[in-house]
Amino acid sequence: MKIIFTILFAGILLISCKNVNSNKEEHNHQETMEVDAEKNKKKVLSPHTSAMAMVGDAHIHVDYSSPGVRGRIIFGGLLAYDQVWQSGAHMATWIETNKNLQIKGKTLPAGKYGFFTIPSKDEWTVIFNSNWEQHGKDEYDEKDDVIRFKVKPNFSEEIKEHLEYKVSKVDDVEGKISLSWEKVSIDFNFKVEQ
């Protein structure tokens, strides 16, 4: 009888230990999954995104990282007036077109360009630069500008939290590119060369 009781007790103890170890492993696995999920939840501050449209047979593509306002004064604060800006975060924003475009009486040949601006209180300079692949404005050189022109900024009372570009079709040969962030936006039209 003692032997049977001892064997039974040892068996119960063994099963109990296995369950404890199994529960520990399951608990540790669950903790690891929760930590991984928490890391994935961490919000990217300047998400990479793009805007594009077809205008006639022209495909216009804008590629940029979209920083947030996060309670800061952007224009005239974080971004000093009258300084070249890569018009996005991280890598320079780039714009690509498969057709020649007419913008403000100037021709932008089909290709890929770094898109820079010089924000000012009353007027912005818009720049298409041949060096499209650079970090920020680190390698920006005015001699690589393909076209430059001026635009008037528009102001709003509402805050646009994240930088946003839009490419929109006006008709089969004309489109518009706009940039909005904080309380400021700019836009300009282009025509597709036939």
TrEMBL record:
Pfam families linked to this entry: DUF2911 (PF11138)
Protein name, entry field: DUF2911 domain-containing protein
Protein source organism: Aureibaculum marinum
